[in-house]
TrEMBL record:
Membership in a protein family: Belongs to the class-II pyridoxal-phosphate-dependent aminotransferase family.
GO BP of this protein: ceramide biosynthetic process; sphingosine biosynthetic process
Entry's Gene Ontology molecular function annotations: pyridoxal phosphate binding; serine C-palmitoyltransferase activity
Membrane spanning residue stretches: 23-44
Name under which the protein is recorded: serine C-palmitoyltransferase
PROSITE patterns: AA_TRANSFER_CLASS_2 (PS00599)
Top-tier EC class: transferase
Lineage: Eukaryota, Metazoa, Chordata, Craniata, Vertebrata
Length: 517
């Protein structure tokens, strides 16, 4: 009973730590008004281009193709040339160093309002990197840490030049899969050379016509693409909303397939551990309960949560004390917490054996690069303590400490931030299109690299800056970033929160106490 109580209490506390504060009404009005004004000027500039008063820089149909269906006249192209182009300097900035906690950027300027760029020859040195997914700081160039990676490169080279089903299956690939299975607590795993393809190429092997996919509305593009390629019927439930999910499950079980009302061959629930744009954490215990109740399958994408949450970095299953065997398909990537590339599928041995012969990514894609494989092995052994030290656990705890500290300080300052207090993905809501560009430029002037995100990656009224915390960030770095954020937030009027937060940190949690039996 005591264990059940603590598990339930931990789950409740996790949900209490989620924050999705709504902006005041005037912010929403000003945001839509800003987009409306920019759109009107876009149509005016399109008219000026059509009559020859302004030069058009984007691709156009040739005169002999004027009667064809236009390729370049949809709304997305209108958005690109009239809205995105005005703020394009805030993306695709060329990095010329290791993307660790600090990095160097090549300075560039534009003489034609961001249609083209030219390099000035100057380098912006030691900008604080708040955008990379380097959660545990394994994107590093310490020669002592990388010795085994260098040795593997000398032994195997940098490329395999074959699929694993032909002659690209190396002993270190099998060692990695055994290590990942041990780390996750599952029967078997299979690794892939690309994280995006791990989703998009494996989902079609698991479901097809006559199957139903229930997908969270904020799922990543790789999950959406995989679902579409599968040919299965797709229905979308509201983000982390268990009432919406259960309603769809009940309807699917009761009504079956459209027209024929035959039972669905499979019902697959697709969710993420941490949602990369919201910083929210999946309500895993409730979803597991629903999938058991309605005899569905669960596909869990832990790209951003594996290594980043949980006492030993084992992701949301550890965070919520959920048995990994209750998750039918566990997916994750090595591109974030492990400082490498690629992804994995984990679960029962029958599942993995099936994918080895049916997954397009397994059959046709080149095997994972040997030095990348060794980098993942090195990082995972460090986390597990198999290298003889406690550096891995220290990094996990440092990331958790940095995350809590950074989020608490932002709330005290008055910013609206989304997500769970345990999530190292920290979105700051900026809302208005003009403030997005001004924020990114002002932060770079202060030698802080940030990622700003807007439509279509987010809802049109919820543009934001997304900060990613790392165990490699020192307290001094975070304090410097917070100091400049406070100044920029005041200068650009970005502190929209109407909630009041105490500057006194939590001294304890209720779960620290033993239940009196």
């Amino acid at each position: 009973f005591r264990n059940t109580y603590h598990s339930l209490k931990s789950t409740i506390l996790q949900y209490q730590r989620e924050s999705f504060e709504q902006a005041p009404m005037y912010v929403a009005v000003m945001t839509y008004l800003g987009f409306g004004i920019v759109t009107l000027f876009g149509y005016l500039r399109d008219f000026l281009r059509a009559v020859g008063l302004e030069k058009c820089h984007l691709a156009q149909e040739r005169d002999e193709q004027k009667d064809f269906v236009p390729l370049y006249q949809d709304f997305e192209n209108f958005y690109t040339r009239n809205l995105y182009m005005r703020v394009r300097d805030n993306w695709n900035r060329p990095v010329c160093s290791l993307p660790g906690p600090v990095f160097d950027l090549m300075e560039r300027v534009s003489d034609d309002y961001n249609w083209t760029f030219r390099f000035t020859g100057r380098t912006i040195h030691n900008a604080i990197n708040m955008g990379s997914y380097n959660y545990l700081g394994f994107a590093e160039n310490n020669a002592d840490f990388l010795k085994t990676v260098a040795d593997i490169t000398h032994q195997y080279g940098v490329g395999v030049c074959s699929t694993r089903q032909e002659i690209g299956n190396l002993s270190i690939h099998e060692e990695l899969e055994e290590l990942v299975a041990s780390f996750l607590g599952v029967e078997s795993t299979m690794t892939f050379g690309m994280g995006f393809a791990t989703n998009s190429m494996n989902i079609p092997a698991l479901v097809g016509k006559g199957c139903l996919i229930l997908s969270d509305e904020l799922n990543h593009t790789s999950l959406i693409l995989g679902a579409r390629l599968s040919g299965a019927t797709i229905r979308v439930f509201k983000h982390n909303n268990m009432h919406s999910l259960e309603k769809m499950l009940r309807e699917a079980v009761c009504s079956g397939q459209p027209r024929t009302h035959r039972p669905w061959k499979k019902i697959l629930i697709m969710v993420e551990g941490i949602y990369s744009m919201e910083g929210s954490v999946v309500q895993l215990p409730e979803i597991v309960a629903l999938k058991k109740k309605y005899k569905a399958y669960l596909y869990l994408d832990e790209a951003h949560s594996i290594g980043a949450v949980g006492a030993s970095g084992r992701g949301v299953t550890e965070l919520f004390d959920v048995n990994p065997a209750d998750v039918d398909v566990m997916m994750g990537t090595f591109t974030k917490s492990f400082g490498a590339a690629g992804g994995y599928i984990a679960g029962k041995k029958e599942l993995v054996d099936y994918l080895r012969s049916h997954s397009h990514s397994a059959v046709y894609a080149s095997a994972m690069s040997p030095p990348v494989t060794e980098q993942i092995i090195r990082a995972m052994k460090c986390i597990l303590g198999k290298d003889g030290g406690r550096e891995g656990i220290r990094r996990i705890r440092q990331l958790a400490e940095n995350t809590r500290y950074f989020r608490a300080r932002l709330k005290e300052m008055g910013f609206i931030i989304y997500g769970n207090d345990d999530s190292p993905v920290v979105p700051i809501l900026l809302y208005m299109p003009g403030k997005v560009a001004a924020f990114a430029r002002e932060m770079l002037e202060r030698k802080i690299g940030v990622v700003v995100v807007g439509f279509p990656a987010t809802p049109i009224s919820e543009a934001r800056a997304r900060f990613c915390l790392s165990a490699a960030h020192t307290r001094a770095m975070l304090d410097q970033v917070l100091h400049h954020l406070n100044e920029v937030g005041d200068a650009l009027c970005l502190k929209f929160s109407q909630r009041k937060y105490s500057p006194r940190p939590d001294l304890y949690e209720e779960t620290d106490f033993e239940l009196d039996s």
